[in-house]
Amino acid sequence: MDLILDVQGLEKRFAAKPKQTVAVAGVDFSIKRGECLGLIGESGSGKSTVAYMTGGLLPPSAGKVSFYGKHRQMVFQNPVMSFSPRMRLLDSIGEGLRYKTNLSGAEIKEKALEAMDMVLLKREYGNRYSWQLSGGECQRAAIARAILIRPELLICDEVTSALDVSVQEQIIQLLIKLKKELGLAYLFISHDIALVSSICDRLAVMYQGRIVETGSTREVIANPQKDYTKLLISSALTLADAAQQ
């Protein structure tokens, strides 16, 4: 299985008085085709900054992002905010094809409808606006838009954190389904141990801008090596126990 993404020495510094803020400090990781790598850590650890640099939306201060495919797409935390409130959903989903292909309007519409079918979103919703949908429906639409051009890599930045717990599971199952059907690779950004354990093949744990531990999902959760990873998993288990009581 060959690589779809290789990240080496990635750094990001933001100018701030009296000195620079280092958000990401020398991050290395790779993702194979069809693999899901979970990047986990607390808020402010640098996960989303890594996601934006990996997706080409933010230039790194140092380091290199090597992408070995044709297309990579990103799905964001707030699905409603990622759509124009003035565009109907079907037009928003198909917008990327208008810039990347020479397809006719009718062909783009049909492909957008097919993408809606793949994410189990009713075709009739194509005539609605994003603010007329629930959070889960809107996130399905965002995923449909992302897979429309058949990317090899999907970067998911906290894609379930704004959703209800029951809807979170539905979105995870959808992503697992699409991974199998389309051979997608994922960079899955999350702070939720339970979620990443159900979808990710490997985990990379971030703390203060650095990756402090990597390994298979089972290894990292069952036998964490670093104190921070142990604390992260322990906190997640404590919250899960409290929720069940």
UniProtKB/TrEMBL annotation:
GO BP terms, alphabetized: transmembrane transport
ABC transporter domain ranges (all copies): 5-233
GO molecular function: ATP binding; ATP hydrolysis activity
Pfam families: ABC_tran
Protein keywords: ATP-binding, Nucleotide-binding, Transport
UniProt cross-references to SMART domains, sorted A to Z: AAA
PROSITE patterns cross-referenced by the UniProt entry: ABC_TRANSPORTER_1, ABC_TRANSPORTER_2
Source organism superkingdom: Bacteria
Family note: Belongs to the ABC transporter superfamily.
Protein name (record): ATPase component of various ABC-type transport systems with duplicated ATPase domain
Originating species: Desulfosporosinus youngiae DSM 17734
